[in-house]
């Protein structure tokens, strides 16, 4: 019987935090922008620096949004 209790607690723990917060999504946007820049630089004749600059702007906007536009609240 002890194993079923432990399994249930593990299952409850793993599903409790399955929802992504706004800040998790912001942290996913930054590397996604650079991955898209990599793909764009491979398939396009434009220079890589154009795509990297665009990805930097997107990443900077994500950071600015997370820090200044919608900052974390105390107690979160």
From TrEMBL:
Pfam family, one: DUF8015
Keywords, in A-Z order: Membrane, Transmembrane, Transmembrane helix
InterPro entries named among the record's database cross-references: DUF8015
Domain of life assignment: Archaea
Segments traversing the membrane: 21-44, 50-69
Protein name per its UniProtKB record: Uncharacterized protein
């Amino acid at each position: 019987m002890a194993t079923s209790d432990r399994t249930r607690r593990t299952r409850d723990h793993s599903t409790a935090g399955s929802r992504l917060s706004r800040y998790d999504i912001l942290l996913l946007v930054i590397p996604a922008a650079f991955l898209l820049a990599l793909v764009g630089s491979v398939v396009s004749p434009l220079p890589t620096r154009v795509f990297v600059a665009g990805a930097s702007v997107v990443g900077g906007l994500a950071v600015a949004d997370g820090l200044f536009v919608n900052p974390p609240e105390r107690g979160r």
